[in-house]
């Protein structure tokens, strides 16, 4: 019996290590799927935010056109009210004319009676003639007023027809506005992208021999060490030379960009995450990054670039492109970025 018990224990299989390995593999798969899902959500939110900005601009323009249409309708209502008032005045004038015509007829009858009774009613006949003459004058005046009112009514009707035509035209324009805005926006973006590509292409040719200058997406990136001394915001001689080349390329390109494209060159200053010493000129990295961007903008202005085509912005250490605290990561984060965009 002891041997049988010993043999039974030796045949027992331990499943626990295999179960732990399977569970670990399942957890790693779930973590990988969650990472892919979060990354996809981040990219999708970036795309949606860009489209929301374009949609907001289109909604603002449609609201402006809606306000213009409301003003047109208000003007139409005023014209209709004026037309109703003129019709009322015409009715009153017609009534006055009828009364005067009756008075004229009565005056004519009285004149006939006065001729039969010439001896006894001569004074009354003279008075009636005066009354008749005044009545005729009033009738003539009323006829002129009626003609003027009819002319005004005709003008009002014509204005109403013009207003209705404008109303129909405005509705047609509004219905077609979305399509035209989309086409115009696509053309503007396409034109700006073409000029941006030309601009970066020329800068590539001019600055191709510099290893510490590179293109990242739609931005031209200069490492700060190329342009500024450590902790300073004044352009050194090498930096002025590089910015001079940039100004030349920008001036050449500005002559080719159509005037209806409201473009600007944005100059962004960035620093690493090392705090500045309290004894320096700048209190923190915010001030240093802003001062460096402003220094580049002012130099470009001195080279003839229009000031209204330049924008300076400082981001401190809060828009890093390299993670970590290594010297290489810090050097990449200390940079000046140039971006050609619309206002």
UniProtKB/TrEMBL annotation:
Alphabetized CDD domains for the sequence: OmpA_C-like
TM stretches of this protein: 20-44
Keyword entries, A-Z: Coiled coil, Membrane, Transmembrane, Transmembrane helix
Pfam families according to UniProt: OmpA
Any single Gene Ontology cellular-component annotation: membrane
Coiled coil: 48-103, 132-166
OmpA-like domain span: 216-343
InterPro entries per record: Bact_OuterMem_StrucFunc, OmpA-like, OmpA-like_sf
SUPFAM superfamilies the UniProt entry points to: OmpA-like (SSF103088)
NCBIfam families, A to Z: PRK09039.1-2 (NF006543), PRK09039.1-3 (NF006544), PRK09039.1-4 (NF006545)
UniProt protein name: Peptidoglycan -binding protein
Organism: Rhizobium setariae
Lineage of source species: Bacteria, Pseudomonadati, Pseudomonadota, Alphaproteobacteria, Hyphomicrobiales
